[in-house]
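Worked example 2:
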Amino acid sequence: MENGWSIALYFSGIAACLALATVLKLRVKIFQRHLMPTSMLAGAIGFISLQLARYVFGWLTEEQLQRIQHELGFLVAHLMAVGFIALALKDRNKKKNKDIANTGYAIVKTYMSHGILGLAISLILAKYFFPDMFPPMGMLLPLGFAQGPGQAVNIGIKWEESGFTNGANIGLAVANFGFLWALIGGVPFVNFLLKRVYKNQKKYGIQEVKDMEIEKSSRKHTISVPKSIHIDDLTIQLFLIGSAYLVTYLLLVAFGKILVPLGTFGETVSDMLWGFNFLVGTVVAFGIRLFMDKMRVKRVIRVNYADNYLLQKISASSFDFMITASLAAISITVLRENLVPILIITTVGGIYTMFHTYFICKLIYTEEQLEHNAALYGMWTGTITTGIALLREVDPYSKSRVPENLVLGSGFAVFLGVPIMFILALPLQGFKLNQPIYYFWTFVAMIAMDVLMTVLMFLNRPGRKENIKQ
């Protein structure tokens, strides 16, 4: 991939996989009957194509294959950031809703419970069964499951610099096993709830989803830029996203310099911040959105530059490309070497998430519990995309408020989850300094955050004030 063609070939290769997957979804009945998103099918096509090119036809050397997988990992991380920045720039109604706040609390609580579970498993495995295993590897469970491949590979890359061999690819593997739990485990989970718990609720067939009505609001453009300035609406969205990402980069550089006096711990925290580029980018984008709103109120800005329709499309496209690239980038060699611990961590995580999701939804939602179960389980084992895919099983016509709760709750969780960056630095610091006491403090910090989120959910649960008055 010489002569400056690398970026073009990655883009066109992923696009070709998506095109072929789209044709298969439209023409082959077996793919129509199953819930697998087109982007996951495209990723499987990309993965198989790379393996054939290396091991069957010999078109790639082992070094070239590893370079492609590594660079796809970087691409996944950046696509995730672009997707979240685009979502954060959208204009929204500023209405207060207990469900949104509770969804945010539940998301952060899930990060913590996944972290506690994953770290406990990996420490036990490293101590008694796999002495060469990276002890904090289980911390990839909350990253790969609850945050998706972008974040798992981001942190994996940073941990590679501290001694975690093939961290990025292991992160991708954990995330993609999460996708499998979302889709293969998610449908039976939702069907069980329909038959045993929510018996009176109608189940829509998957085939009905194909004829799903699209809400009129999702087709509306909200931009109001006069045509006299001679710039395309899409270009404006791209410069808003690009500006937010540039500010994100500058902030990360600045934080890195500020943390230098803290020595090794400062370096570790700085690495975590770089790994959470999507989180910093989302906060920056929310800030830009708030600034534009304030300027419009003061009539300094008379134009609405952000277009909800285009931003939604950019975000969705970024996530589609991200999921495709993340699956294509998995290394068979790395997966084979770490298969047993990955299987143990993700299997326990997938089963636990079913029970966790059910009890959380029962606690914080009085309406649309089944829809929230489907969407949150899909999101907590994959991404918002898989959450929406599972939601379509029970809400194919988008009549529930669940998608709004997922998106706005995730935005709220961004601010609540800032301490996660510092918590993730603790086990890595323990590994670098060979001081297991840091693992203990990691558990303490995660349990404290978990308890805090539980208390906030309990205090904010629907009907609590009415019950107190009675």
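Residues 203-218, 466-470 have pLDDT under 50 and may be disordered. Residues 6-462 form one domain.
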